[in-house]
Design brief:
CATH architecture of the domain at 108-216: Single Sheet
Strand order of the largest sheet: 1-2-3-4-5-6-7-8-9-10-11-12-13-14-15
Oligomer: single chain
Main location: cytoplasm
Radius of gyration: 29 Å
Order of helices and strands: HEEEEEEEEEEEEEEE
CATH superfamily of the domain at 108-216: Histone H3 K4-specific methyltransferase SET7/9 N-terminal domain
Subcellular location: Cytoplasmic vesicle, Secretory vesicle, Acrosome
Structural class: mainly beta
Protein name: MORN repeat-containing protein 3
Helix content: under 10%
Strand content: over 45%
CATH class of the domain at 108-216: Mainly Beta
Shape: elongated
Distance between the termini: 117 Å
Number of helices: 1
Organism: Cepphus grylle (Black guillemot)
Pfam family, one: MORN
């Protein structure tokens, strides 16, 4: 019996058209229905590689790395100042899965600034925070608050060095009253010193020393 060869089934044309329509590798500019705009690289119709995203509603802009549609890698996020109409940088650093992760710098209102590590969009790890009143905290962070070991320096140069928990002094620590020339060393709980000793420390050089020195035991 002779062997009959049937013609090979051809792929529907729309499959080929769909492949050609896929944004992959090259840079494209795409406008969303809500007015958002993205210009950059793509992979399988997802933002992937280098790109710039502009959100129309609040005028925010992200420029940096993308991975499968999410901010991932190194990039900067800025917002539009409604008064000056210029972009103000909010965050520059590393991202993972659309959240701050790794080392980065964030600029807050009132000239506050954080430099350090992030995890899941929260300050976690080592970091330094500059506050609006001139004080500065440097040390460990946990879930967006000081947690672990750290140092808080106040505007008058007085400082606390020791343990922290939930953003408050907690555990063994030292408070240097440099303006009075005294040092308190003891145990803290929820920002309150529970027990310890107070001694003179650099009292001669202090700008406003206590009236009477603490007698030695």
């Amino acid at each position: 019996m002779p062997i009959v060869k049937y013609p090979r089934a051809t792929e529907p044309l729309w499959h080929e058209w769909d492949r050609k329509a896929q944004k992959c590798g090259l840079r494209h500019t795409v406008y969303s229905v809500n007015g958002d705009q993205y210009t950059g690289e793509w992979l399988d119709n997802l933002k992937h590689g280098k790109g710039i995203q502009v959100w129309k509603r609040d005028g925010a802009i992200y420029s940096g790395d993308w991975k499968f549609g999410k901010r991932d890698g190194y990039g900067s996020y800025s917002i539009l100042d409604p008064v000056t109409k210029e972009y103000k940088k909010v965050y520059t650093g590393w991202w993972k899965n659309n959240k701050k992760c790794g080392y980065g710098v964030t600029f807050y209102p009132s000239a506050e600034r954080y430099e350090g590590e992030w995890s899941g969009g929260l300050r976690s790890g080592w970091g330094r925070m500059y506050y609006w009143d001139g004080s500065m905290y440097e040390g460990q962070w946990l879930e967006d608050r000081p947690g672990g070991q750290g140092m808080l320096r106040l505007p008058n140069e007085n400082r606390y060095e020791g343990g922290w928990k939930d953003g408050k002094k907690h555990g063994p620590g030292k408070f240097f009253y440099l303006d009075k020339g005294q040092l308190f060393e003891g145990i803290w709980a929820a920002d309150i010193p529970k027990c310890g000793i107070l001694i003179d420390f650099g009292r001669v050089e202090a700008p406003a020393p206590t009236q009477y020195p603490i007698p030695k035991v």
